[in-house]
Amino acid sequence: MTHDVFDTLASSGQKTVHRRTHLKADRRKLFLYGYAPDNQAVVPGEPLDRTVGSELRRHPLRGDWSIYAAGRQNRTFKPSSASNPLAASRPGEPLTEIPFERFDLAVFENRFPGLFEGAVDPVYSIVETAPARGSCEVVVYSPKPEGSLATLGQDRRRLLLEAWIDRYTALFDQGCAFVLPFENRGDEVGVTLHHPHGQIYGFPFVPAPQANTAQAFEEGYNLAAQLSDWRAEYGVAEAGGLEAYCPPFARFPYETWISARSAASGPWAFSEEERDGFAFLLGDVTARYDAFFGRPTPVMLSLHAAPYGRDGSFQFTAQFYPLLRAPDRMKYLAAVEQATGVFTVDIMPEQAAASLRDVS
Predict the structure, then answer these.
(1) How many structural domains comprise the chain?
(2) Domain limits at 121?
(3) Given 22, 195, 197, 304, which residue is catalytic?
(4) What is the pTM of this model?
(5) Are residues 295 and 249 in the same domain?
(6) 120, 133 Cβ separation under 8 angstroms
(7) pLDDT score, position 98
(8) CB 20 within 8 A of CB 100
């Protein structure tokens, strides 16, 4: 790509979404999304150095894969506000990841990826290895350095949803087997950049939990059918044909899921009403956590859509895992959870749902 490419995507509600694809000086792709076309000039400056070099290794006893990416050891760690890499760039100042003076929402290839296009076969290892082909992207929700899904506003959450859907399509077309948009929020989760943002990983394989989920749906489990039975006791909020609820099998205290009453394999399958409802509930659940715990809640959010080619029976969920069990008490994943995957849950899901449901 030698020039920027400008596209018009599907409309978001009553608005049309525009995308600008830009090739950065270090050859990484940057996508700008907004409700108006963007034709501003690039801010010149020294390009950032990209760090690549990783591989996959398989655990011979567990049977799962891990990403080994030594270059990530030196990734950006809690920079000052003056050197925020997720801010817009300013002429005459050090270049940020976004070489433009303004933007609405941006997605770019991670400077310190564990998975990337063009990864080569590992040279040698005494265990089973594979090339770390895939994608790691950063999603910058807003040019403002503070905020959350609760405070972004509905229009920007809808724009985020359209960007997610666009990246799902692109990464599946690129050859990824499973795509996971996610957000880590809070120091307790390990966040090193506090500017509101998330990430998207495109995996060359389907990780075990998602493979097991796909198999369960293919064998007949019907999550959507369960929602009507759970709503009274486990429901938290609803909007646009979607439900937010604490599943009766939750592993984290106050764990909350969002899914559609009519099964959908991914957000790309949502109607306009469902897209509005999903965007609203992303903010609503985040706001409920912050109000209930009385503080910005450290939480992990992940979107679980169908792996490539397995749309048929898969049912999409967005899953929130808070790392608090009380305002001043962390939920630690200690030896038993880490060693066995068997969680001890301190709050009954029905109690958690009632508490979150009552938050105004």
Answers:
(1) 2
(2) 5-48+56-205
(3) 197
(4) 0.95
(5) yes
(6) no
(7) 96
(8) no
